[in-house]
Amino acid sequence: MIAILTSPDSFSNNNEMDQIRKVIKREGEGIIHYEVKNFMDIGEALTRFKQCNVSAIVIVGGKALSSATFEYLIDKKPFGNIGIPISVLSGDEDRFISQSFGATADRAHKDLKHILLKHKSGTLLNHIVKAPLIKVEGVLHVGKLYGLYFCTGEIINQKSLFKRTLYRSGIKQLIQNYTTILSLLSKAYMKSKKSDDIDEMIRISRNQRGAVLGRYFMVLLSGLDWMFLGTKFPDRRKENSLNFISVENTKDAILNTGKKILKGSYGNNMVPGHTITEIEHARLVLNKNFVVDGCFYETDVSGELLITTSESLTFIHLH
Fold first, then answer.
1. How confident is the model over 157-180, as pLDDT tens digits?
2. Of 305, 276, 278, 286, which is closest to residue 132 (Cα–Cα)?
3. Which residues are bridge partners to 5 per DSSP?
4. Given strand 290-292, what is the order of strands in its sheet?
5. N or C terminus of the chain with fewer C-beta within 10 Å?
6. Contact 82, 312 (CB under 8 A)
7. pTM of the entire structure?
8. Gap between the Cα atoms of 162 and 160, Å rounded
9. How many whole angstroms separate alpha carbon 310 and alpha carbon 212?
10. 3-state helix vs strand vs coil in the chain, percent to 5
11. Contact of 69 with 41, CB cutoff 8 Å
12. Contact 271, 246 (CB under 8 A)
């Protein structure tokens, strides 16, 4: 059995939810599907999935559904300490995390069809990866949320970077990545500037060390092995730590970042204007929006975020 958890409210295009239902009906046996009407239903859905002894869960919906499901899996542990493999297929636009695990279609129902075909053939669980979640506290209207990826700084002004559809492989992917990177960096390079305006700055405290105040092109924390566009982090030495990268908003730092991203890998070498390390928690004070798992949020009135590493979950990687 495979479980599918959906939230119709995640799709502004009603036809998409109809397409998802058609894919599930067409594939027929061995599927349990639960449509969440409100997030109080998630606990009941996961309890049913456990009773049916499902082998995997596919979450199909927007940012709130995946975050709330992550929270329930961590806090209540309905599948015990071992957990269960998860696939995340995002809603209309927030496709960043689903793409992080190999999904490349422009619509969720197309990736769902691919998953169910792999399930039928018995190959769905051939490639699974464990990744620690991040817990972000201090989010406006939310309080706390769980995810895999946090990013803020000048880079988040390029919203298309987090909402785009990726090509699976080949020359199209190569051209797409290079043109996106060069466009992003050229704009950032031309706009980079020094400023004493406190509203432009971010205060960062890592692992309870003294706070550092600066103006950043990018501040990134993640449980994933890559940033975006295929650029790899250095290998983590600790299993339950988060990758942390900060890049100052200066021309030299942005240029060095561009070289690393085009190369496809951030090494462990020290780079001027960069901090690259592993952390367990960080406290940020900022007056900017931020991104978690490809979706945009704001801080509450204090402007302070506490980001900590949480437990690891098992994710299905689609090849």
1. 877 777 655 544 567 667 777 787
2. 278
3. 34, 59
4. 274-279, 242-248, 216-222, 149-152, 290-292, 295-297
5. C
6. no
7. 0.87
8. 5
9. 24
10. 35, 30, 35
11. no
12. no
Structure tokens at 204: 């960062």
Residue with tokens 């036809």: 15
Residues 87/109/149/200 CA torsion (nearest 10 deg): -170
Cβ proximity of 33 and 20 under 8 Å: no
The rounded mean pLDDT for the chain is 86
Query: What would the pLDDT profile of 53-91 be if each residue is shown by its tens digit?
Result: 999 999 998 777 888 999 999 999 999 888 899 999 876
Pairing status of strand 31-35 against strand 143-147: unpaired
Q: What is the DSSP letter of 283?
A: E
Q: How far apart are CA 144 and CA 133, in angstroms?
A: 13
Cα(229)–Cα(94) distance, rounded to whole angstroms?
15
- DSSP annotation of 223: S
Amino acid in position 154: E
Distance CA 118, CA 127 (A): 11
Give per-residue pLDDT as tens, 70-80. 999 999 999 98
Task: Return the beta strands (E) in 176-215 as ranges.
Answer: 202-206, 212-214
| The residue type at 91 | G
Answer yes or no: are the C-beta atoms of 5 and 69 closer than 8 Å: yes
Structure tokens, 64:
């709130």
Nearest-angstrom CA–CA distance, 221 and 229: 16
